[in-house]
Amino acid sequence: MAGQAQDGGDFVTIPKGQYTVGKKGHVLNPFRRVRVDSFRIATRETTNAQFDAFIKATGYVTDAERKHDALVYKPVLQEFEWFNDSTASWRYPNGMIRGGIENKMAHPVTSISYSDILVYCRWAGVRLPSLDEWEIACRAGTTTDFSFGNDTALLSKYANTWHGKDHLMPDSTDGYLFTSPTGSFAPNAWGLYDMYGNVFEFCSGKLKAYPSPTVAHARGGSWWCSPNSCHFFNSYDIGRTNIHASFSNQGFRVVK
């Protein structure tokens, strides 16, 4: 493993070198060593305020705003069920009935698609982390399931996740039903916040098992994920969705 990352304010520099990624026995992400060039990754997820600046500068219209097909959570849904709310978009990430983002500008932007994010990145002069870069940053030099070890019970210190036994009833055990302001929980050893929970973070790159150009990958789990359903709030799992799909639990962080 290369040397420890260095603090760069809003970004952390990950040194060029060889790192360990994956998990033994994992079909999609097996345990292995990879080599990467140095990169700078944002310490926090991209916020509503940052996305708002992009919209004001460009007039861009997101997939959800055009197609009215964003998927959101509402009570009394079975596991992995989502509600298609035609009013939902990045401005109203959980639908108009649940309010807008006026008081949530420090929350991560959601209800946007992978395709929307690529347009933002081109405008901002940044990019998404690769699958391996994201994992290297998330692990912060560790080989355990989490950057803090293997004890899931410690996750609540580091992540906004779902604590209820199912999704039939709302859960705000940690103070948040949906997203939380970025940096509300403890960072990993390299100063990166919300690598687990809050929102799934899109990455560039493809898994060999999903070669379709319409499939995008995201990592880290979200506020919706729980030990009883989507257990993707870890260092090794890799999620997938359509490049034009918009969910209220997916967002991104960027790399320079």
UniProtKB/TrEMBL annotation:
All residue ranges annotated as the Sulfatase-modifying factor enzyme-like domain in the record: 10-256
GO MF terms held by the record: formylglycine-generating oxidase activity
Top-rank lineage group of the source organism: Bacteria
InterPro entries, per the entry: CTDL_fold, Sulfatase_Mod_Factor_Kinase, SUMF_dom, SUMF_sf
SUPFAM superfamilies noted in UniProt: C-type lectin-like
Coiled-coil spans in chain: none
Pfam families xref list: FGE-sulfatase (PF03781)
Protein name per its UniProtKB record: Sulfatase-modifying factor protein
Annotated organism of origin: Paraflavitalea soli
